[in-house]
Specification:
The complex is a heterodimer of chains A (about 230) and B (about 350). Chain A has about 230 residues and is an alpha/beta fold. Chain A is built from eight helices and ten strands. Chain A has helices at about 40-50, 75-80, 95-105, 110-125, 140-150, 170-185, 195-205, 220-225, and strands at about 1-10, 15-25, 30-35, 55-60, 65, 80-85, 160, 190-195, 205-210, 215-220. In chain A, the strands form two sheets. In chain A, strands 6-7-8-3-9-10 form a six-stranded mixed β-sheet, sandwiched between helices. A four-stranded antiparallel β-sheet of chain A has the order 2-1-4-5, covered by helices on one side. Chain B is an alpha+beta fold. Chain B folds into two domains: about 45-90 and about 200-335, no CATH class; about 100-195, 2-Layer Sandwich (Alpha-Beta Plaits), CATH 3.30.70.3040. Helix content of chain B is about 75%, strand content about 5%. Classes of the chains: A alpha/beta (about 230), B alpha+beta (about 350). The interface between A and B is large, with 35 and 36 residues.
Amino acid sequence: MIRFEHVGKRYGGRFDALANIDFRIRRGEMVFLTGHSGAGKSSLLRLLMRLERPTRGRILVAGHDIDRLHTSQIPFYRRQIGVVFQDHQLLFDRNVFANVALPLQIQGVEPQEAARRVRAALDKVGLLHRERALPIELSGGEQQRIGIARAVVNKPALLLADEPTGNLDPQLSADIMRLFEDFNRIGTTIMIASHDLALIARLHHRVLKLSDGRLTGDDATVEEAS
Amino acid sequence: MSAARTPPSNQRQQGQGSRQTKPRRGARSQRTGVNSQLRAWARHHRAMALDSMRRLVRRPLGSLMTMLAIGVALILPCALWLTLDSARLLDAGLEESASLTVYLDTTMQESEAMQMASTLREHTGVAAARLVTAAEGMVEFEQALGLEDALMRLGTNPLPASIVVAPLDTSPQAVHGLSERLAEIPGIDEVRLDLAWLERLRRLAELGQRLTLALGVLFGFGVLLIVGNTIRLSVENRRQEIEVVTLIGATHAFVRRPFLYSGAWYGLGGGLLAWLLLGIGGQWLSAPVQALAQSYGAHFTVPGLDWKGSAALLVSSTLLGWLGGWVAVNRHLKEIRPR
């Protein structure tokens, strides 16, 4: 599903945010990306979202070299990726329903069909009863679940999450992770950047470890054994 | 736009489709196809037109201020254009009254002069000829200058009889030709055609037209700046929204759309205000202008916009607003888009 081939990202001509990153994630895998802050987790996700381009190497997603996408194709590439942000990035001027419906609106899904899918996504994250609420009225954990509902509402093949539990207490974090595991169970490929090592250790998934922009650990074997 | 681009992405998904959900989605897209994309496009246009309108209404004072600024910027070139347009009508009237004055030899008797007048009436290229005898000429002269006493002292009438000739063809070349032909007729002392002032007026009108064009371009640019600045602020206010929708796959067109509609609404509102103010201004000026014209013995009404002019004003102001929105949003999207 995802393949990094000797990828490097250099900022300002001197600083290597990522160097010689080489790995492969199969379809339907769930992978954690760890490392201290500044290790390059966010840079790696930004490359995957095609917000930035690698200075060297290739990134293949579903067999396509995403560096070769034309500017006009990028939106259509991004529609196949669900993204969950640390600060959930909900729009506060509209209610929960409209927030979750946003990707479908962008894709031009018929309103009735969109409503059905939004309710399904909200039901999945357990917040169907809050569809008329404004994001500001929700707790941090609920807001993050709405963010997840928005990321999965158009059933993306790939789900990326950048520190999705960064602001949550351990109990809520565990709930959120269980939610990701549910989506993984129905076939979604998931990559989660997180530095919550204790939580990651309990979940027994493959872990990619970054430090100073280099891939220093890839315990793919753990995942395969479990 | 998105209608044309989405099918390839569907094909791509189908090509990879190993998950259960994907083939289903691909099939649905194919069943509805381009038609549903078009409908979605139209739906989003409608939604954004309404949404941007709602946003304007939500802050009425600010919106009105922007529209007033646009309206005021549009009024000046419009008013100048209207004035020129009526001047052109006036010019056409003057051209019809372009006439030659044929001065006869002073030695000519009145009967001979009358005969000359009828000869000229028969002349090709002459529409009408009116004899002004020496005595009549004297009276006109005295009245025009208010010099009765001074001229009385002269004793004899120094003025020749004259014939005012209206040419059939009033174009400058034809009038020139006619005057040359008339001057050759024996008994005619001199032919005067005073077209120079007409020419001058025409030059003035041309200058005015260019001035209007220059002002129109300048103030049109002003409208662009006004709308551009307003849209820039709303782009700034909705920065987070733009970032989020860009991240989840919105096309540039999708992001731009609400701002283009805002710009168009501002333009239309400004155009309507300009139209209203022009109408009120015209009414307000009409009485004194007519009084002034009457004192010169002329008939002149303050021009107003007809339906064609009104439509042109509204369409161009709306387009200007839309263009202003386009420029502003494109400039700022480049900054906002994380590259």
